[in-house]
Specification:
Largest sheet: 5 strands, parallel
Strand order of the largest sheet: 7-6-5-8-9
CATH topology of the largest domain: Rossmann fold
Oligomer: single chain
Structural class: alpha/beta
CATH class of the largest domain: Alpha Beta
Number of strands: 9
CATH superfamily of the largest domain: Aspartate/ornithine carbamoyltransferase
Distance between the termini: 13 Å
């Protein structure tokens, strides 16, 4: 049966830890420059409606390293841009390709592609979720901390797509998660409901707070994302005002665990959501996190395709 990864909620706990284990094994193999043929010449489409540095490059690199091939599907070159229904495009791509990694504006788009294409669709970001980012982040935490069970991740900032997937993934892994955000910028209620239901089974705790200091107290991981995402440029001034005080800085680190690690899914705006001192400091694992997007992508591709 064809399986897609559209939401972090599509995964079972067994799925998640199997992917993380594959990522670990494949990272070691890639570092040793071993020849891998896990994708068996499968051709994977890279369909990105939004610009991308890390997600596109990490997936393309992972596909090539696993013995597959890629075709980049630029949105301006597709007939969707001229009004062709997604169901028609999906059916055609399903007959030409073995899978698609899609980075889209509307989450409905990846759902429609999965429904009509008949091939695995990997959600590389939608307005609702970013499940591959959350999986790769959990891999980095497991790699650096040795475990994820019982740790506390504090997310400071906008309750956006990255935050949504982190809530679902942390709950599934048995990892506590706190979200600190201003009024009006909380994660969606339906995502919180799903995370809480999962957390009840795994022993995790999910909290949404308004105080960054309260959320950071004793945290093992401090995590942030940009305040103004792509497509929100018109809201820039409003969001900059709303998120004043929601910055990861030295003061916030002092409230956290002595062994706290700092993560950011990038791109980073130093002086806004994080200071240069912190992102370049000894507690930052941001660059390891960024590298692991490729190794996490390899684990995801291997699990869903080979």
């Amino acid at each position: 049966m064809v399986r897609s990864l559209l939401s972090a909620d599509d995964l079972t706990r067994e799925d998640l830890f199997a992917i993380l284990d594959r990522a670990r094994v494949l990272k070691e193999a890639i570092k040793q420059r071993k020849t891998l043929d896990l994708l068996g010449n499968r051709v994977i489409g890279i369909l990105f409606e939004k610009p991308s540095t890390r997600t596109r490059t990490s997936f393309e690199s992972a596909i090539l390293r696993l013995g597959g091939g890629t075709i980049y599907l630029a949105p301006n070159d597709l007939q969707i841009k001229r009004g062709e229904p997604i169901e028609d495009t999906g059916r055609m791509l399903g007959s030409y390709l073995d899978a698609v990694v899609a980075r889209v504006y509307a989450h409905q788009t990846v759902e429609d592609f999965a429904r009509y294409s008949g091939i695995p669709i990997i959600n590389g970001l939608s307005d609702l979720e970013h499940p591959t980012q959350a999986i790769c982040d959990l891999f980095t935490i497991l790699e650096t901390k040795g475990t994820v069970q019982g740790l506390t991740l504090t997310y400071i900032g906008d309750g956006n797509n990255v935050c949504h997937s982190l809530l679902l993934i942390c709950a599934l892994a048995g990892m506590h998660m706190r979200v600190a955000c201003p009024e009006g910028y909380s994660p969606r209620a339906d995502i919180l409901d799903k995370a809480n239901r999962t957390a009840e089974k795994t022993g995790a705790r999910v909290q949404v707070l308004n105080s960054p200091g309260e959320a950071a107290e004793g945290a093992d991981i401090l995590y942030t994302d940009v305040w103004v995402s792509m497509g929100e440029e018109k809201e820039k001034e409003e969001k900059l005002n709303a998120f004043h005080g929601y910055q990861i800085n030295a003061d916030l680190l002092s409230l956290s665990s002595k062994e706290v690690l700092v993560m950011h899914c990038l791109p980073a705006h130093r002086g806004q959501e994080i200071t240069a001192e912190v992102i370049e400091g000894p507690r930052s694992i941001v660059w390891q996190q960024a590298e692991n997007k490729m190794h996490g992508a390899a684990g995801i591709l291997d699990y869903f395709l080979s």
